Amino acid sequence: MKLRNSNVRRLGNEEYDVLIVGGGINGAVSAAALAAKGVKVALIDRGDFAGSTSSESSNLAWGGIKYLESYEFLLVNKLCKSRNYLMDHYPSTVKEIRFLTSIAKGFRYPAFLVYLSTLLYWVIGRFKTGIPKYRSRARLNSLEPAINTSDVQAGFEYSDCYLYDNDARFVFNFIRTALDNDCVAANYVESLGSERDSGIWTTSVQDNVCGESFQIRSRVLINACGPWLDDHNGLTKQKTEYHHLFSKGVHLIVDRVAEAERVLAFFASDGRLFFVIPMGPKTCIGTTDTQVDSPEQVVSDSERAFILKNANNMLRLDRPLTKQDIVAERCGVRPLAHEGAGGVADWVGLSRKHVIEVRDQDAHLSVFGGKLTDCLNVGNEIADIVKNLGVDVPFANRKWYGEPDDTVKEAFLHQAKLMDLDGMTSPSSSEPLTTRLWRRYGSNAFEILEGIREEPQRAELLIENAEYLRGEIELASRREMIVKLEDFLRRRSKISLVVRDEDLRTAEGLKEACQILFGNEAEEKLREYLLESETATV
User: Fold this and answer.
1) C-alpha to C-alpha distance for 525 and 531, rounded to whole angstroms
2) pTM over 0.70
3) In 3D, which of 289, 218, 160, 233 has the Cα closest to residue 39?
4) Residue 350: what pLDDT?
5) Are 303 and 446 in a shared domain?
6) d(CA 517, CA 365)
7) Final residue belonging to a domain, choices 358, 388, 418
8) Residue 283 belongs to what domain range?
9) Which pLDDT value is given to residue 353?
């Protein structure tokens, strides 16, 4: 909380080149790009960073194969290039994974024709991934016994990418990069509206932790509020050609249903792609696609039933999945950029492309749509637009993204090997602990090594099945602006996604984790989390 409180004080006492409202993926990459290039930038979010859409995705960083059906070849080409770029610059996080897809009898296209589309996708993707392969019904059976092939004509195998940890962690690391370059960012600071006078935006805000109000002054204002973008433009009296339509997506997380480390892909009963995605010891299943009018959504009984019914039909399980098998749920809306008012959020007709609408005379930017795959393009475009608006960008050509270079990684791995770090703990996965720490923290993982050298107990796992060390939680308390326990359990980590709520609430290490994160406020924060958790399950 010290870092956050310090930044909140700075927000009201300094003037900024750029203020970004919204700490999802669009706001995070905008802040990271601008701060690294020397722009004086501030970022606020009324909740936690990487909330809403940026923490409710399917964790896939893919090239948009489904957009081939709507003939959006230029978009697929752009997304494939972006996916490949992410793979090159985040090799520890954005990893290739095989998709095994089955085509039901009577599907709208023959299986072989769909397979040919995967070859086209592979070509558009510049042969970056493994070659697609046609799979007969018998071959599908042998490759993955969990697939129910009773109504299947054939299938195919192809490659795309996924985020090894989770989407929210990926987004927060851009926030952390921005902070490292002196971006003044704070979560739980809400914009109440902005006014422009004499070339300066004055944004009235409220600190949602203590309730205090103050103002932030900036030359440029960027609306990166995601699903709430149109609402905030109403507060700032900004009229735009584009608006958002909302498509609600739900995923259910259950215990692992397939052994192989691959994504099982099907076409659900509503015709859209439906995934069974590995998530460590768990499996993430979905998604739904329902047009809604508001970003605030919860999982309905009908949506649970839809996902469970499709999973049970498409998988060969020892027993059908039921509501009691659900470990956790993900529910969010996809903000789809749509020109004009009204419209239908059709999953084929409206893609997740981003649109940046600029009002030069007001020095105001609205960032519509977007997806994780395309995030680096958003950051680069924002930096170019801000420069064209007359803001000084001292280091315009500086690279702002990517993992530290291999020499830094090799130094980390060597130090960890000398400490026998992998032998000091019993990880709950087959992945080496050193690999996991590097992926999550990059060069900041050296701080964890130093802490463990001082006190070896910092290598202990605090919460069973959570894969988080005491030293990681200490690092989070110092550097990751944890305001609520849920911030850590759900967005800095994926603990609450892989550990059942009833198990987490009674976990022996939860109180100690609270003590590390919040000190004297530990009991209050724990009560707050338990109350909110209990309310959410009612």
Assistant:
1) 10
2) yes
3) 218
4) 55
5) no
6) 36
7) 388
8) 98-162+245-339
9) 84
75 assigned to some structural domain: no
pLDDT in the model for residue 75: 87
In a domain, 71, yes or no: no
Burial of 388 (0-12, 13-18, 19+ CB in 10 A): exposed
Which one, of 73, 23, 77, lies nearest residue 224 by Cα? 23
**pLDDT attached to residue 64:** 87
- Is the separation of the CB atoms in 201 and 363 below 8 Å? yes
Residues 371 and 458 in one domain: no
173 in the same domain as 30: yes
Residues of the chain with pLDDT under 50: 347-348, 538
Domain identity same for 280 and 411: no
For residue 407, give both structure tokens. Answer: 């020499």
The pLDDT, as a whole number, for residue 211 is 96
- The Cα 253–Cα 233 span in angstroms is 35
The type of residue at 278 is P
Contacts of residue 477, Cβ cutoff 8 Å, sequence gap at least 6: 516, 517, 518
The predicted structure's pLDDT at residue 403:
95
> In this predicted structure, what is the pLDDT of residue 431?
80
**CB proximity list for 310: less than 8 A, separation 6 or greater:** 266, 268, 269, 274
pLDDT of residue 346: 55
How many CB atoms neighbour CB 405 within 10 A?
9
Q: Which of 159, 156, 132 is nearest to 144 (CA)?
A: 156
**Among the residues of 359-426, which ranges form H helices?**
375-388, 406-418
Domain shared by 114 and 182, yes or no: no
Residues 332 and 462 in one domain: no
Residue 462 per-residue DSSP state: -
Same-domain check for residues 412 and 498: yes
